[in-house]
Write a structure and sequence with these properties.
This protein has about 325 residues and is an alpha/beta fold. It folds into two domains: about 160 residues, Rossmann fold (3-Layer(aba) Sandwich); about 140 residues, Glycogen Phosphorylase B (Rossmann fold, 3-Layer(aba) Sandwich), CATH 3.40.50.2000. Helix content is about 30%, strand content about 20%. It has ten helices and 13 strands. The strands form three sheets. The protein has a six-stranded parallel sheet, sandwiched between helices. The protein has a four-stranded parallel sheet with strand order 11-10-12-13, with helices on both faces. The two termini are about 15 Å apart.
Length: about 325
């Protein structure tokens, strides 16, 4: 496979329009970083299914150009700050690159000449799409680079015989980097609405604390909770290196997770093992004892998250270097 270099043509980053989750934000971060590196990066907003595309010739008549004109205003307002222009035209040329998120493996068939980069922003979320696109053998039919956002994805791909992978992590918005002091924090436990059942049962055992699910809130409201609470609890699936544990930790919360998905890997959630619980319902008494100890000795526990926080602070620089090396 031809490996891209600094003299590549256009880099087309395929993204769902109006998508406001961790994946679309990472794709915009990539576009912004590549533009800062002097690359010609563009967003291309598409639906999940491959449409009937209008095909025309390039200006010199040598290449096919595919038109994507489904959306007139596709950018989420929160992502305008990344300053990545979008285009309706994709030129099918060997010096150009497309970057595909993990939920669109069927788009690997698109473009006869394009270089293809497949970014595993999560692992679990991709599985149903991989199977519907023809299974794991589908990847052997197309020449593509595999990029991974987490150690979890790297290990999981290796189990399917995909060993040549390249790290490309995302990063947390710097607005989270100004935590409030412990004196301004209340005895509140925040928990992710994904995998909320164990947290809700724990809440019944410790009603003396405030238990706040993070659902139906604006990003500013979530940020405010992170800056003024003591604990963030997440017993979800962790299909990739999720943003919320990182946002909570860098905002000053102590973090308690399960051991599913990326949470099992120290490289992805780099917190001491005492804060990761295999069976939060079976070990409920143990979790509640830990919660009480954190509430009573918050500053002592907070020190245990310094390594994780330092890693989070360095993510943007690491992402810049990874993108520079890849494109």
């Amino acid at each position: 496979m031809k490996y891209s270099s600094n003299n590549v043509g256009n880099i087309y980053i395929f993204c769902m329009p109006k998508g406001r989750t961790g994946g679309p934000e990472a794709l915009h971060q990539l576009g912004s970083t590549l533009r800062a590196l002097g690359r010609n990066a563009y967003m291309v907003y598409i639906n999940c299914e491959i449409p009937e595309l209008k095909k025309k010739q390039s200006a010199n008549g040598l290449r096919s150009v595919y038109e994507f004109k489904e959306f007139s205003d596709p950018v989420v307002p929160d992502y305008i700050k990344y300053g990545v222009p979008y285009t309706y035209d994709v030129v099918d040329s060997p010096e150009n690159i497309i970057v595909l998120p993990e939920v669109w493996p069927y788009w690997l068939q698109f473009g006869e000449h394009l270089q293809k980069y497949f970014w595993w922003l999560s692992y679990d979320n991709a599985l149903s799409f991989v199977h519907s696109a023809g299974g794991w053998d589908n990847f052997y039919h197309y020449d593509c680079h595999h990029l991974v956002q987490s150690q979890y994805a790297k290990v999981s791909l290796k189990n399917h015989g995909i060993e040549e992978v390249y790290p490309l992590f995302d990063f947390i918005d710097s607005k989270y980097f100004v935590p409030s002091p412990s004196a301004e924090r209340v005895n509140r436990i925040l928990y992710n609405h994904k995998g909320a059942a164990p947290a809700q049962k724990l809440a019944e055992m410790a009603p003396e604390f405030i238990w706040q699910p993070l659902i139906g809130l604006t990003s500013e409201e979530v940020w405010s909770f992170f800056r003024t609470s003591k604990i963030y609890m997440d017993f979800g699936y962790h299909p990739g290196k999720d943003r919320m544990p990182r946002e909570a930790a860098i905002s000053g919360c102590c973090v308690i997770t399960g051991l599913r998905g990326a949470a099992r890997h120290f490289e992805d959630i780099s917190i001491p093992g005492k804060y990761k619980v295999e069976d939060p319902e079976g070990d409920a008494a143990k979790v509640i004892a830990l919660v009480h100890d954190i509430m009573e000795n918050f500053d002592d526990h907070s020190v245990a998250f310094e390594y994780y926080r330092r890693k989070i602070l360095s993510e943007r620089e690491e992402f810049f270097l990874q993108a520079r090396n890849l494109f």
